[in-house]
C-alpha cells in the first residue's frame, strides 16, 4: 500500500486534513457526503476528508484492486493464505451462505458448489423448523420446544448472540434463547437455573468440534439434562464442520454443517447463526436477515467508492488509521438492541486484521486493524464520552441510529418522545465531536476534529440487520485486501490455547516442565 502513487498523494493531503472546527465547516456537507444502500445512509460529513481525499482514496482502492479482490473472493479464489508458508490455504466463502436467492447479476462471480452446500443446509433447516412448529419434533412428553440454549464461543457465539439481541423484538411468541459461552462455570449455572430444560433444545456450535470451552460446556449442560432424567439425543442439535470430532449424527437430534471456507467470525449467516435465529425469530425473518446481507455483498462489487458503502467505510478507516494515526474505532449504536454488536465487531475486525505480516510473509511497515470497542448510546455518554470529547487521544466513532424504534412503544414526555430524545443525543454527539467548542475557561474547551460517521436507517429490521452485519464484514475484508494482509486466519489465538492446555496438564498431575506456569500458580496459591 505504502509504495502506491495514491498513498503518496494521501500523505500530502493528510498534512492538512479538513478542519471540522472552522466557521461553517459542516455547511452543505451532510447532503453531499452521504452514500446510501438499501435505505441505509452512511454520512461521512464529520470525517476529516474532502472531495480530494475521497478521490485519492478511490485511487488507492483502484491501485490495490480492492473490488476485484472482493469479487474473486466471492467467486471462490483462495484468499486465506500466506504465499510460500504453511497456512490454512483456503477459499473464503461466507458470502456464499447468503448467495441463495438466485439473483446473480450478469458478470458477477459466485461459487456454485458453496452455494449448493448453503442451499442444502437451509433446506434441512426449513424442514427442522417446520417439524418443531407442527409438533413432529417434541420432547418425550409430546410437548413443543419453547426455549433454546446455545453453547459456543468466539465466532460461534458473539455474532449469533449480537444478532439475536438485535432482533429480539421479532421473537416468535413464547420462545426464548439463552447463551452459554464462557468456561466459567457460573455462566452455565446462571443459564441452567433459568431455563426450562424439559422444553429446551440445546444447540452446540463448534466449527472445529474441539474447542475446550464448548466441549466442556456441552458436557456440563448434558449432565444437567441427564440429572433431570432427560435424554440428550431428544434435545441436542449441533452445528459443526464436516468430519470434525463433533460430527456424530448418532449423538444429536439433528446435525447441521458449516464449511472450512467459512471463518468462525464470519459465520453468522451460515448455520452457526441460522439454527438459533430461525428458532428464535422465525425462519422467514432469518431469510430476511440473509437477504439484507446479500444485497450488501452485491453493492460491495461497485467500483465507485461513493456508491460502495463497505469500501468507503474501509477507506475512511484507513485514512484515520494510517494517515491520521488514530489507533481505535468506537462503534456507538444509539439502539439498545445493538448492545452486543460492538463486541461482535471487535472479534470480527481484531481477529481478522490484527496482523503484522503481509500475504507474502513479510513484515508490514504500517499499522493495520484498529482497536474496536463500543457501547450503546446514550449509556456510553454517561461513561466514556468525556475522554472522547476532551482527552489527548482522538477516537474515531461510528454512530448507528434509526428513525423509528422497534417496539413502537413510546411516550411523549415534556413534548418529545424517548426516540426523539435518543436521536437528539445521537446527532448532538456527532456534531459536537466534529466542531468542538471554544471557551475562555480551558476546562470547558472542546478541541473538536474528532472524526465520526453515521449509519442511519428507518428501523432495525431483520433485513437492515443483515445489511449492517455485511457492511462491516465487507469493510474488514476490503481493509485486509488494501493492506495486503490475510484477514482470514487467526494464528494469534493459538499460543494461549497451547499454554492453557499445559496448565490443565499441571492440574491433572501430568509431568510437564512449564516452569513459569508452575511458579505463577504457586504465587496464586493454586
Ligand atoms: O467454532 P470453534 O471451532 O469452536 O471456534 C470458536 C472460536 O475460536 C477461535 O478459533 C479463536 O478464538 C475463533 O476464531 C472461533 O470463532
TrEMBL record:
GO molecular function: glucose-6-phosphate isomerase activity
CDD domains for the chain: SIS_PGI_1, SIS_PGI_2
Record field: catalytic activity: alpha-D-glucose 6-phosphate = beta-D-fructose 6-phosphate
Superkingdom of origin organism: Bacteria
Keyword rRNA processing assigned: no
Subcellular location: Cytoplasm
Record SUPFAM superfamilies: SIS domain (SSF53697)
Cytoplasm is among the record's keywords: yes
Catalytic site positions: 351, 382, 497
E.C. no: 5.3.1.9
InterPro entries (UniProt xref): G6P_Isomerase, G6P_Isomerase_C, Phosphoglucose_isomerase_CS, SIS_dom_sf, SIS_PGI_1, SIS_PGI_2
A Pfam family recorded for this sequence: PGI
Keywords: Cytoplasm, Gluconeogenesis, Glycolysis, Isomerase
Involved pathway(s): Carbohydrate biosynthesis; gluconeogenesis; Carbohydrate degradation; glycolysis; D-glyceraldehyde 3-phosphate and glycerone phosphate from D-glucose: step 2/4
PROSITE patterns xrefs: P_GLUCOSE_ISOMERASE_1, P_GLUCOSE_ISOMERASE_2, P_GLUCOSE_ISOMERASE_3
General function of this protein: Catalyzes the reversible isomerization of glucose-6-phosphate to fructose-6-phosphate.
Protein family according to the UniProt entry: Belongs to the GPI family.
Protein known as: Glucose-6-phosphate isomerase
Phylogenetic lineage: Bacteria, Pseudomonadati, Lentisphaerota, Lentisphaeria, Lentisphaerales
Designated gene of the protein: pgi
